[in-house]
């Protein structure tokens, strides 16, 4: 992987946003892989001024994951987050931006449906990734198969604790999610893995330099030919 150490999350946002702008200039119907959580927010912020006057009407997008059994209108559903942080501020066509369907009634085939939609779009051109303190990318918790596709997973306790800040209480964090698999993520053409802060240092060192192991799902990036890791000094601290 190419490792870029930046002074701040804001600088990382600019770097990745510039890549996205270049991609869309070359390919107005580019397919973006969107992450949620705190990490990608600087990218979405940096995009706003950079896409003014750019025709984004054909840009397509796929979120990495969604909670299962959460009302899509709940403010912390990833559908709501993507709408609020990406679709609305950038003026994207909501019909072209997908999130996995976490509804219980259709969950049995939601993974396959999502995989089919990604394939029909011709695959993801540029995938933004954060990393969990557990080493997860998407919500592929430790033990996830490198061949996995979009499917339901159980969030581990550590992840629910990490994400409790978005909810009133940790008990309110859903137990299950539907996430692109590691196999799905590895098929995106260019991966950007972002991480900021000392809490991510161990996960980043493991992902970039550790053994390739499903115990640290982020290490799957070592199997991908085109990865850019963008980290601040604190998240880079455990790199050799
Ligand atoms: C989000 C996702 C997760 C997060 C990770 C880090 O769509 O798939 O892998 O990227 O949990 O979360 P933050 O950025 O909130 O530290």
From TrEMBL:
Family to which the UniProt record says this protein belongs: Belongs to the glucosamine/galactosamine-6-phosphate isomerase family. NagB subfamily.
Reaction catalysed by this enzyme: alpha-D-glucosamine 6-phosphate + H2O = beta-D-fructose 6-phosphate + NH4(+)
Stated role: Catalyzes the reversible isomerization-deamination of glucosamine 6-phosphate (GlcN6P) to form fructose 6-phosphate (Fru6P) and ammonium ion.
Protein name: Glucosamine-6-phosphate deaminase
EC number of the protein: 3.5.99.6
Pfam families: Glucosamine_iso
Active site (UniProt): 65 (proton acceptor), 136 (proton acceptor), 141 (for ring-opening step)
This protein's record includes keyword Hydrolase: yes
Species of origin: Microbacterium flavum
Regulation affecting activity: Allosterically activated by N-acetylglucosamine 6-phosphate (GlcNAc6P).
Residue ranges constituting the Glucosamine/galactosamine-6-phosphate isomerase domain according to the UniProt record: 9-223
